[in-house]
């Protein structure tokens, strides 16, 4: 079946940057984003260490400045925390948040004088070239569609869409028809280990990936505050990108089918009578078939206290990797250090990935090329989780995953 037939027939059968962490960690991550050259590793969101700067030397590719609008300064403070305001090729020309105090705070942090009361007003500003959507997850698709409609390049916090395969189709078509850059800021893509895995894979030093694992553990005995309580009872696999990145962001592949299991949670807000999703699960473990014929186990868990973080492992025909430890047939690996950042741009939160994501989006515009986590990768990271949750509700039924290419 072609792309449209397979997805649309499936539709008949079947919506956080990061979720963030406790308030102290969010404040710490935001402070780091505003501090040039942090010299030590500190514990950031979800137990992921914030990395030291790359030893590579940054070189400017252009003198041009992109006028960027930023929307969203909620509990995670994601709007300013990716460091757009510190990039030499960016002018943060407008900011917006629905809450005036949050909007004023973001304007101060981003050193921006122009504010708007909503995204819908901000995207009408013809002086803006690009918009970063850091709003509530259920609004990501709608807000990105509106920005694209008004001729803007768009970067979005994760996930790309929220529980809706219809929205995935609409966003895919809108990006393709717009000719604009779209990038989802998936943090695992620029973790030290995931970035290194991608370099090794592209050099052929894993061979075909036989088995991949990704995990996102984040205990939420009480839900994190959220706009209109969208995080209350959140199905784990509606937020799958931090784990799925340990396959998709390495190989640029996708998941073709899934069987997912969940267990009823003892956490109050994760019981079906207590959330709008009627979701009974706090942990969902998905077993996927990959587009290259391998297997992947991807876990998302909200209700298991203990070690927290985003992590993954790979086993391939020519080598395997856990953390930064590669063992295999290749003796000399490619350069595994992440790209250099401009001097005033901090690596930031989630393992030093936030500055890298922002810089990649800016470079994609300046160099007129596809960003790393483009619309295809963003949707392949996201929609597999939507189907996985449906599988969990059906006691692990094997289900086909719509494909984007």
Could you characterize the architecture of this molecule?
With 405 residues, the chain is an alpha/beta fold. It folds into 2 domains: 185 residues, 3-Layer(aba) Sandwich (Rossmann fold); 176 residues, Dihydrodipicolinate Reductase, domain 2. It is built from 12 helices and 14 strands. The strands form 2 sheets. Strands 13-12-11-7-10-9-8-14 form an 8-stranded mixed sheet, with helices on one face. Strand 12 and strand 13 form a beta hairpin. Helix 6 runs parallel beside helix 7, helix 7 runs antiparallel to helix 12 and helix 8 runs parallel beside helix 9. The relative contact order is 0.19.
Topology:
Layout: H1 3-13, H2 23-33, E1 66-71, H3 78-81, E2 90-96, H4 100-109, E3 115-116, H5 119-122, E4 130-133, H6 140-149, E5 153-156, H7 165-178, E6 182-184, H8 192-202, E7 209-217, H9 241-251, E8 255-264, E9 281-290, E10 295-301, E11 309-316, E12 319-322, E13 325-328, H10 349-352, H11 354-366, H12 375-393, E14 399-400
Parallel strand pairs: 1-2, 1-4, 2-3, 4-5, 5-6, 7-10
Antiparallel strand pairs: 7-11, 8-9, 8-14, 9-10, 11-12, 12-13
Helix pairs in contact: 6-7, 7-12, 8-9, 9-12
